[in-house]
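Researcher: Batch entry, complex prediction.
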Amino acid sequence: MPSGAEMVKRAREQITEVDPRAVHDSASNGGAPLIVDVREQNEFDEGHIPGAVHVPRGFLESRIEGAAPDRSERVVLYCAGGVRSALAAKTLQDELGYENVESMTGGITLWKDRGFDVEVPRALTAEQRARYSRHLLLPEIGLEGQLKLLDAKVLLLGAGGLGSPTALYLAAAGVGTIGLVDDDEVDVSNLQRQVIHTTDRVGMPKVDSAEQSVKALNPGVEVMKHATRLDSSNIMEIIEGYDVIVDGVDNFPTRYLLNDASVRLRIPVVSASILGFDGQLSVFAPYDGPCYRCLYPTPPPAELAPSCGANGVLGVLPGTMGLLQATEVIKLVTGAGEPLIGRLVLYDALATTFTDLKVRRDPDCPICSREPGEISDEEMGVFPDYEAFCAAAG
Amino acid sequence: MSVTVKIPTQLRTVTAGDSEASVEDARTVGDVLDGLYERYDGLRERIAEDGDLRRFVNVYVDGEDIRFLDGLETQVEDGDEVTILPAVAGG
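Model: Structure tokens for the complex:
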């Protein structure tokens, strides 16, 4: 049997090696190869070649296809000194059929000695790496997406049926700051669907109960509590600074008010509503797509606008709809996928059908056809017959 | 020639609980709705006013909002799905 040193020597003879200067020059000439760092996580975190993707050698066979799906693409591997990358290059070339793979001589040590730049990434703590490991494994999220989630500020309007699952899963996903707006207290009749609250917290303010659950699930999340009812006097102040707003409120005046304020501040709203066995979901991204008023110019009269308080709702329905909202939030924050902008999904739990409807920007929309600066405080949340509506609704 | 109409929860009190209805021989969305009004007492008053739809009701033909097509004159074809959608605020 050959010694380890002989094996390395033989591998280096059988593969193509490339000097750091050649890698650097081809990168600056625009003909950049895919650069793969095959070192361990802690080594990568201490500094790597800018633009390099990280595939530790121990995971080479299982993960390289995610990083380099095209086997004819030029791939340059590097490690600390050029040994591990030589062995990895031999594996890619001989075992996995990569046609154009090279190992960088001298590794990142020589790269640095040549005076080339090193990027030191913002790193997760060991606890965060373990907690979010299933996100980090997804190319669509990865470290970059997880850092965006950790930096994100998401405001949940309502810590009730829709807000419960949304808050729990966004906390679990690592959304750094979660704001909660709710002036209600936990009632035993909430517990059939509002799973963030518990039986022993009946009577407690919902924002306090929700904070306890969020913190128990993920102590790293900062919770901002707003135990108040949104109105035109406080809404701008409360929602300003948030990246995304999740609308799960239970009444029309607040939905219109929120729409107008979010258009003024250009904050996207992930909106859902539920009744009986049916749910609606859409994303309103001001000026990129329609707003709530483009979809519904006016609310229905009170007799056709039942609330969950007065009418039944299947307990799991807000769970389904709230988690669809949470999914849209994560997509907006990380940039993964196609957000539900300009579309409305209708979910019928009894028939188990999802219906996709198109929502268009209304060129005559009373709010989003104008610039944010043109929308006044006085008209926010107001709609035709507003006073009659509110009187009828009590 | 038949068109399927999806009826939302809020209107099922006047459709005897029907969540879906089939309308035959309709040429336009207006014809489809007339077919429903004949079948269901009280539906017209809920969603229409002075011959037009009330503003809080959206109607879609195969996913497209008729406000951005030809309104009640929007043509329907065999197999089309018409969705009636009022705003909901429950959360």
